[in-house]
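The data layer described in this paper is built around a simple, fixed record for each protein. Because each token names a local backbone shape, the row as a whole describes the fold. We quote a single record here, exactly as it is kept in our systems:

***
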Amino acid sequence: MARASGDCLWVILGFVLALRAVAREAEARAFFVFGDSLVDSGNNNYLATTARADAPPYGIDYPTHRATGRFSNGLNIPDLISEKIGSEPTLPYLNPELTGQKLLVGANFASAGIGILNDTGLQFVNIIRITLQLQYFQQYQQRVTALIGAEQTKQLVNRALVLITLGGNDFVNNYYLVPYSARSRQFALPDYVRYLISEYKKILKKLHGLGTRRVLVTGTGPLGCVPAELAMHSRNGECAPELQRAAALFNPQLVQMLNALNSELGGDVFIAANTNQMHNDFISNPGAFGFATSKIACCGQGPYNGLGLCTGLSNLCPNRNLNAFWDPFHPSEKANRLIVKQIMTGTTQYMSPMNLSTIMALDSKV
């Protein structure tokens, strides 16, 4: 009898400790990621699509030296933000390991190939478009409610940090995908940008309606300067002017829209990250950041290693720290680290109205 009651006490104690562990996880700041290949950590591995990064040499510098689905030689921007805020990396939402306490860390809903518009990236067929990413976020909240209850789930989402990266594919994989694309026949470029901004605003309002209160919103990089565009449009290494014009129209209007939304909501919910300027710094002066080149991708083929996909048959640079671009479209891990450094501590030239370190300090007092 004494043995039985002793065993019972151990079971109860184990249960109490498990509940405390869940509570601690719930008190820590969750991190949610939405967007495209710049922030996808492997959701597309679980989909029948060509927009995947699950084979070598992707992941060559990742801690496991294996391809994970990240469009990088190593860590991507969400990984590095998690590192900076002292959290473990968020798992892709489609990863079957995302259960139990791991849900309380957050989730990555991003999917390579998607855009603001649902007709962006149609050639990739089976990807998680932004409307579905938001539906998955609702589903996530239902799963967490079953774990810790409705009130704690609401607090977890309200206190969470969110990153969203959209827009580049709406130009590269839609408007400029082919000559005389459907969208380019429908809209002149300035009108298309205004349409994108209006649709993006609806997405961000929906995200706010789902409970998020701190959202980092990145602009597009200098779209005409990536190796893929240099390979197709450049003779002497100059950036493609039409795509540069698109970025120059989109990014300022995005900041204006975020400011207007914050005024509407009465708080600094949306934080603009000027990733265009962050990229421009090392593209215009690679040597100052320790890069040998900001034009030639580490992995690829053709001019600037900018044609086709990065595969096991591609050219591969021996030292990834010398290239600002890993593949024809995506920054190297070293470049991602420079971007995240500015997200964390950058001046208002890079982060508006404040950087992430300031946000973390402010929110820790609440």
Notes: DSSP finds twelve helices and eight strands in the chain. The first strand starts at residue 31 and ends at 35.
